[in-house]
Amino acid sequence: MAASSSVDKVTIDRAKILGKGNFGIVFEGAWCYLKVAVKRIPLENAASSKREESALQKFNHENVIKLFHVEENDDFKIFVLEFCDASLEKLFLKENDPKKYRGPMPPETEVLLQLAKGLEYIHQKELVHRDIKPQNVLIWVNPNSNQVLMKWADFGFSKRVNERGTYTMSAVKGTYDYFAPEILKHLDEASSTGNEVQKRGTVKSDVFAEGLVFGYFIVEVIIWWKWLVS
Questions:
Q1: pLDDT over 70 for what percent of the chain?
Q2: Which of 15, 79, 17, 18 is nearest to 53 (CA)?
Q3: Which phi-psi region, left, alpha or beta, contains residue 152 (left: φ > 0; alpha: ψ -120 to 50)?
Q4: Is the per-residue pLDDT at 213 higher than 90?
Q5: Confidence of residue 225 (pLDDT cuts 50, 70, 90)
Q6: Which of 8, 13, 75, 131 is flagged as catalytic?
Q7: Could you tell me the pLDDT band of residue 80, with boundaries at 50, 70 and 90?
Q8: Which of 40, 155, 174, 184 has a CA between 20 and 30 Å from the CA of residue 48?
Q9: Residues 215-221: what's their mean pLDDT?
Q10: Chain segment 61-73, per-residue pLDDT in tens
Q11: Beta carbons of 74 and 52 less than 8 angstroms apart
């Protein structure tokens, strides 16, 4: 196997942390002359990294984060991902917050349409995301044209579904505030009996959580406009 050149080498700027996911940390980095996001996952989280890698390799859609490269060392699995400017919740931080996103955005209806198209594509690839929330919506800006795309990210909890869009739900994964009613019911039943009962989950729980993200976005936009005109 040919030795890799300095062009191919992944470099990480440890001073620039873009985010912390369920199992790893995302840094700003460089690869093949590109500014990229580098997700570093400890090898003890091998199951999560395997799920995420398998999912990302299936995707080729403008509203889903792109995976460029994967490598591994003695300590970490490393994903080289498309660089995005911010996650959705950073759009609504206070004006004096240095982490606030102040860049361009599409019209509100276009934001929702892009997210709907992205999630539909994920489900068409026979996968359920299982952690739909604003933090997992990324804002990508084309540096040449200022085109803005919304992208789904963080597939560490993703799982394959069958042709009916269902999957074995032996344990609940995700973020509590964005759980669908059937997931909350499953949690309640498990806590009352003291046992995890194996049930079938569906992609509908993703759709419900996406509706909550839509509601979050619309409400925050209304609050922002009221502040702007006051």
A1: 92
A2: 79
A3: beta
A4: yes
A5: confident
A6: 131
A7: very high
A8: 184
A9: 96
A10: 999 999 999 999 9
A11: no
**pLDDT for the residue 46:** 75
Distance CA 137, CA 214 (A): 11
Is residue 131 among the annotated active site residues?
yes
Measure the CA–CA gap between 81 and 153, rounded to whole angstroms.
Answer: 10
CA atoms within 13 A on the CB side of 138: 22
Residues 203 and 124: beta-carbon distance below 8 Å: no
Structure tokens at 27: 């840094």
